[in-house]
Amino acid sequence: MQARDIRGICALLPAVAGSDLRHITATDRSYVAAELTAFLAAWLVCMPCPKVNPPSPVGLSGPNWRPERWICTAARLGLPVRGAARTAVPGTAHTVAPGMEPEPADGGTRHTIVVAGTEVIGAAESGDGHDALAEWAARLAGASGARMLNVHIGADARGPFVLGADVCVDTSRPGVADALRRELTGRAA
What we know:
The chain is of the alpha+beta class. The protein is built from four helices and eight strands, in the order E-H-E-H-E-E-E-E-H-E-E-H. The strands form three sheets. It has a four-stranded antiparallel β-sheet with strand order 6-5-7-8. A hairpin with a 2-residue loop joins strand 7 (148-156) and strand 8. The two termini are 29 Å apart.
């Protein structure tokens, strides 16, 4: 296959992880993962075809930001957010960011809206106010430069708010793959 034969790229992997490289000696995995990520980023940048979420300095699939940056960006856009803090969990390499857990605190709900190109998928499933939530998702994607983005919306007694976002979109979700295909080919919905 030649580079000219590739009509579009949608990178779904933010980076190569050491855990993806079990065939590499354990002590070398993080180094090899970093080198592979750098190689893939250079290759993606050089490809002459359209890209959804071109690589950025922090990820192969666009703005692979930390949860705090997503919340800060949403707040700067005037979107409702809740405070979040990150604390280390002793004895693990993981952190916990309150407000980023799978469900909002105090029995609230969580819903993920997908921005895929110019289309917003899943806002109607969130209930009343879905037009506003779709607009929030589109604004957050626009501010980040992402053409493909999960926007996590929480709801509590005070109403809906932005929980965060990420670029790890599930393309098997109904409507997402078709929207991405339209984005890459330039065809309208």
